[in-house]
Amino acid sequence: MSYLGLDIGGTTLAAAVATDGVEPVATATVPTPQGTEKQTATERLRGLVEQVCEAAGLKPTAITAAGVGSVGPLDQKQGAVTSPANVSDETVPVVEVLRDLLGTDAVVLHNDATCGAIAERRAASAENLVYLTLSTGIGAGIVADDKVVLGEDGNAGEVGHLTVDPAGTLPCGCGGEGHWEAYCGGANLPRYARHLHETESVETRLSLGGSTFTAGDIFAAASEDDLAALVLERVGYWNTVGVAALVQTVAPACVAVGGAIARNNPDAVLEPVRERLPEQTFLDAPEIRLATCEEPVLTGALVAARRLVE
Ligand SMILES: [Zn+2]
């Protein structure tokens, strides 16, 4: 049996084929087409699937089942990703595309963080856990009582749009105000630094106006720059507010954190949450740790594919 996993992200489309277990025998990635590009994400996905199958020495029709983890929002009944941020297409009918290409109905679509939770559950003994991704955006996958929580249309866990700041100081890409992702999503950290610089008059040597100024610059400067330190202190606070809401709702044994922001800066991101969480939760604070899996979305997608036919 052969399985296909897909990860539809805002910047990268990734694919993997596994034949035994969930260790890929072939992987491939392409950039996600952005708004102005001619080729659509749907067209590029078709090419990516053909490419990864060829690398695995298989025809697409030899794939037994496929799993997809995608940025949201999803319409699971249609098997589509609808109005995804940063992706060129209004709708990506990913399930239909894969059914046509692979010649099988065994295709499942999940939110990307849900795939992360599926992968993490496989690696951990906890029957209640949260997989939290701190990346360009923020999302969570939830396992409660050993069941993966899908939610209506597969959209459970869009926690990046939890209101952490009731004052609604910063607007979110979704149109809301005061959302977790508006402060702590990697794409928004430079804007948050500029906001704090304007409102708190803290000295800085960061080139806030530069087009190349990124979240990575803030983490790199944290030990020597007052503004960078202030940004990370506030980020630690908002991250704790968000994690506390998850802990009180799910009562997980652990929160496994993935995504580039956490992976690249594990101490700076996780330690403030560990320190502050006991003050903010009524329940005992769970273990807060880095996710085990390096490719949680692809791994979870492959696990979900296998489960369709096991
Ligand atoms: Zn939002």
Describe what this molecule looks like in 3D.
The protein is of the alpha/beta class and 310 residues long. It folds into two domains: 3-116 and 295-309, Nucleotidyltransferase, domain 5 (2-Layer Sandwich); 125-290, ATPase, nucleotide binding domain (Nucleotidyltransferase, domain 5). The chain is 38% helix and 20% strand. The strands form three sheets. It has a five-stranded mixed β-sheet. Strands 11-10-9-12-13 form a five-stranded mixed β-sheet, with helices on both faces. Helix 1 packs parallel to helix 2 (94-102) and helix 5 packs across helix 7 (226-250). The longest helix has 25 residues, at 226-250. The protein is globular. The chain starts with a strand and ends with a helix. Bound molecules: zinc ion. Zinc ion binds next to loops.
